[in-house]
Amino acid sequence: MRHAAASFEFSERVGRAVHLAVCGAVLVFLVAPMLVVIPLSFNAEPYFTFTEGMLRLDSDAYSLRWYRGVIEDAEWRLALVNSIVIGIAATAIATTLGVLAALGLANPAMPGRGFVTSLLISPMVTPIIISAAGMFFFYSKLGIAQTHLGVILAHAVFGTPFVVISVTATLVGFDHNLVKAGASLGGGPFLVFRRIQLPLIAPGVISGALFAFAASFDEVVAVLFLGGLQQRTVPRQMWTGIREEISPEILAVATFLVMLALILLGTVEWLRGRASTRPGNAD
Amino acid sequence: MARPLSGARLRAAALTLPLLAFVAVTFMAPLGSMLVRSFYEPHVADALPQTLESLRAWDGSSVPDENTFRILATELRLLDQQRKLGGVATRINRLEGGMRSAIMDTARALRDAEPDSWREAMTAADPAWGTEEAWRAVRRAGERYTMRHYLNALDLDRDPSGNIVAQSPERRIYLPLLLRTLGVSLAITVICLILGYPVAYLIANASPGRSNLLLLLVLVPFWTSLLVRTTSWIVLLQNQGVVNDLLVAVGVIGDDGRLALVYNMVGTLVAMTQVLLPFMILPLYAVMRSISPTYLRAASSLGATFPQGFVRVYWPQSLPGVAAGSLLVFILSIGYYITPALVGGRTGQLISNMIAYHMQESLNWGLAAALGVILLVTVMSLYLVYNRLVGIERMRLS
């Protein structure tokens, strides 16, 4: 009997060790690719692998030449400006419309909620190639293909589901009697929104806006179909770089994008932490 | 829905209206315009109206009469003068190989001619005009509303008498590609489930601090640019890349035996699995977090070994997460474009890449639209299943 218990314990410990090893391997598989890019972007040689000098931590083997190359390149600078302009404009549209819609959807009186929600979320699940092809046909007819406006509208509609989802999530458990109470005390709809709802949903609004911005900042297919030379964004520039001659400059840009992702992720997680400890939220 | 719209209902609905209108114009209308393109093809019909009118009475069993030849020649010459011939010729050529050069050559040969027999002059310029196939191609290309892009997209064709038949096996392209896309998506879904399940279990059962840290590791790739992740895989997997260098250094393979890990199906599978894995782990984790560990302890105290307890008690409770994650990964992989385009090479392409090819290179937009509609219907049906099973409202981003 004791023997059986011991062997049970032993197999359990082996099982746990195997489980941890598998998880470790999977997490390395998830994260390592992005981490490998960072040191390689400082490679003094135009290779995509660690040189012997790099492995010896020889300081001559590392350099900032690819970063300098990117900063001095007018095309990359234009791409960055375009990405920021398009990202901010698209985020502003997506956030405004998305917050309004989420307020409507969270209202218990909203008719046809399920149908409307799935309609509003559909840009997120539609294969990007289909959306981009359709937009190419339709926006050409409207005469806004090959313009900033076309790309901004496309990115705005791709961003709205993120805003709707994250604002709706902060409104779960929101007590609608608060709105009624505000109104009964003589507050107009706008005052009630600004003083009662907005402070509660603010973390969701900011998270949603960051999601929408990140989605725009990473989007390449709509830019490929709708943008001309003047609408080249950072991902578009990377796309060309990867397809043609992949240069270590790409890795410098990639490192910048990894940093941006970490900042955005950090902000969203911080906001989420704040939202869950807020009073007035029954979550 | 029969209830009257009260003030509150109207106000709630009014808040969603601006976004609904925006989505309708910027997103639904484009999809509609793609749908129209997939069956509406006015180009040839507008270019050759009289020829098509004349061909309406033609029975198709022999070459048309002299009058039809004359009308077509006249219309071709007019198009040639207006420099619109190329587009028409390309479209007819899609139905019958060789028609592009037949049309261009004929128009050039007839430029200033006034022959006695148009039939002889055209057949002399290109013998194709002496065959019924050429004329059938003209007539079919002139159908204003047509199913042929769908037939083409499903590897079907019409025989001379108009019956729908399957393409000969060596000419079937799209159905095998669609099947391959479904197969690859299924494979990726299964791999993601196998890799993601243990990780989600670990995160769900770790102490709060550790679970947050592990969750961050899953979220970092989720937030990192897709292009960055795809680039990393090229850097890692290419011939002179990190993985091959490592394998050579360790001695698993010789320097001349470097593995082809990228620009093929292997590259597509590896990169897409990594890209989509967080979409599996997060829904699994959300469900597992709510499964109390006391169930497993109860099973074990009743004498079940861990595998028994897991199979009989834990796995069934985690099934909603399995369904949500698997459907999400499957839906996303069917429509994947960027990763296969960059790391798939020639053999690792999926249906989306074929749509992009017809949009950008062959410029056969009708076919691209038909393939797009087929893909869209597939994805939307899965989306409806997802909505039924999981509920779109429960989709969480973090």
Task: Give the fraction of residues assigned to helices of chain B.
Answer: 55-70%
Provide mean pLDDT of chain A, rounded. Answer: 88
| Backbone shape of chain A | globular
Q: Would you give the CATH topology of the largest domain in chain B? A: MetI-like fold
Low-confidence stretches of chain A: 279-283
Distance between the termini of chain A: 48 Å
The total tally of domains of chain A equals 2
Helix content estimate of chain A = over 70%
CATH topology of the largest domain in chain A: MetI-like fold
Describe the structure.
The complex is a heterodimer of chains A (283) and B (398). Helix content of chain A is 77%, strand content 0%. By secondary structure, chain A is an all-alpha fold. In chain A, helix 3 packs across helix 12, helix 4 crosses helix 7 and helix 4 packs antiparallel against helix 9. Chain A is globular, with a radius of gyration of 25 Å. Chain B has 398 residues and is mostly helical. In chain B, strand 1 and strand 2 form a beta hairpin. In chain B, helix 10 runs antiparallel to helix 11, helix 11 runs antiparallel to helix 14 and helix 14 crosses helix 16. Chain B starts with 6 loop residues before the first helix and ends in a 9-residue tail after the last helix. The model of chain B has no long low-confidence stretch (mean pLDDT 90). Chains A and B meet through helix 1, helix 4, helix 5, helix 6 and helix 7 of A and helix 1, helix 10, helix 11, helix 12 and helix 14 of B.
Helices and strands in order, then pairings?
The complex is a heterodimer of chains A (283) and B (398).
Chain A: H1 2-40, H2 52-55, H3 65-72, H4 74-106, H5 113-125, H6 128-142, H7 148-171, H8 177-184, H9 189-217, H10 221-226, H11 234-243, H12 248-277
Chain B: H1 7-39, H2 42-47, H3 49-55, H4 66-81, H5 85-93, H6 99-109, H7 118-125, H8 132-141, H9 148-153, E1 156-158, E2 164-166, H10 174-205, H11 208-223, H12 226-237, H13 242-250, H14 265-288, H15 294-301, H16 306-334, H17 338-343, H18 351-360, H19 365-389
Antiparallel strand pairs in B: 1-2
